[in-house]
Amino acid sequence: MGSSQNHTVNEEYNGQPAHTSTGRIKRNIIFIPALLFPALYAASANYYLFHGITELLCVFLNFAVFIIALNTYHITKNHYLMFLGICYGFVSGFDLLHTLATGEVNFSPFNNSSLSVYSWIIARHMESASLLAAPWFVNRKVRADLVFSVYLLLSLVLLAVIFYWGSAPEMLNTPGPAGPKQEASLLILATLLAALLFTVKNQQLQPDLRQLMKTLLLFNAASQAAFLLYGWLPETAAALGHLLRLASSYWMYKIVADINLKEPYKKMYRELSRLRTEFQSFDQRYRDEINERRREERELQRLSYLDGLTGIYNRRFFDQYLDREWRRAIRGNYPLSLIICDIDYFKKYNDKHGHLNGDNCMKKVTAALSGCLKRSSDMVARYGGEEFTVILPDTDSQGAALVAEELRKNVEQLKIPHSDSPIGQYVTISLGVATLVPDQHTPPENIISLADQALYRAKEGGRNRIMT
């Protein structure tokens, strides 16, 4: 993994989310000062109980850091926290040895104080050295199993040395400023301060994570400084030192838990929310497009059924509607009536007044015909040229004749001037009416033929009249 890719990973998991985590971790750590006086009392009342509880809490928190960092590395690809997580796993192991070998716990055939001292020194040196080396791993991909193997091998060698050596020299337990144990603490403190300096100056480490690690190192350094006072103020130094080390372990745990556990889930949630929003938006756009297309299709279909000049249904729709009503009349065994009407001498009207006036005349006649139909099932259509048809479902011959007469009168009452008409001074229509009770053996063309014949007789009879 290249440097740019690692930088992106650090920003992703240690950027704004880490900034948010900083405030949350600081709120969680406020309780540490409040525990100082209870810790002093516990240390003075029963040091071994206080020591055991705080050390075991540190062991638990450090091991939790190890488990989280190692098992989330494949998700976060945070090499820095992976390295520290493995380190804290082995530190927790040596701290556990230190805890079990302290006081009256009969853990080892060797001198308990020796094992306790050795384990403590190894754990602190391992932790401080790892914190010093950790910035080197910020933008370097390192195999977790290799890091684990190195720490495992080092730990086994150190354990072998401890058990081979057997007991610690008495001078390691010498209190005061001149003891080798204090010299080891000074070296650990110097390493921690160097780690603090390298961490603060490391610009490859994301600023918010750098600030978190700075606080962690200050806790560690303060804890080590407190332990240096053990020769003069044993109870105060022990209480303060262990309390600060507990704060450091808790701080590290919260860093790893927030960055490696909470932030990836939050990132996934934000991504899912974004995808859900995009999907909903896409779904809405898709639905809108579908609805718009359906509206366009319905409009196109409607336009395909309408006459371009008059706006009423055309011959195509007439054929479909007649066929549908014919089959419905067969099922219901009721009569179906059809009226075919023709504008009298319309060619002469066009020749006299022109096609534009002829079109206006056609529209007015259409409006007059449509105005006579009261039922939604009744339908008027332009059959072709100046011919119109009217379908009257469930209407007998007498009812059809009445409707036809109303149609004729409505057109005549328009009083559209037609000076070239041989039968009057206004535009009129002739109508043929046919009524049948459809059956399975009779096609709908029969009623068209009958109505057309009736229209022919109306024209032959003088026009402006109805024939059935």
TrEMBL record:
GO terms for biological process: cell adhesion involved in single-species biofilm formation; negative regulation of bacterial-type flagellum-dependent cell motility. InterPro entries: Diguanylate_Cyclase, GGDEF_dom, MASE3, Nucleotide_cyclase, Rev_trsase/Diguanyl_cyclase. The chain crosses the membrane at residues 29-50, 56-73, 80-97, 117-138, 145-164, 184-200, 212-233. Residues 334-468 form the GGDEF domain. The keyword Transmembrane helix applies. SMART domains: GGDEF. Keywords: Membrane, Transmembrane, Transmembrane helix. GO terms for molecular function: diguanylate cyclase activity. GO terms for cellular component: plasma membrane. Pfam families: GGDEF, MASE3. The keyword Transcription does not apply. NCBIfam families: GGDEF. This is Two-component response regulator. It comes from Desulfocucumis palustris. The lineage of its organism: Bacteria, Bacillati, Bacillota, Clostridia, Eubacteriales.
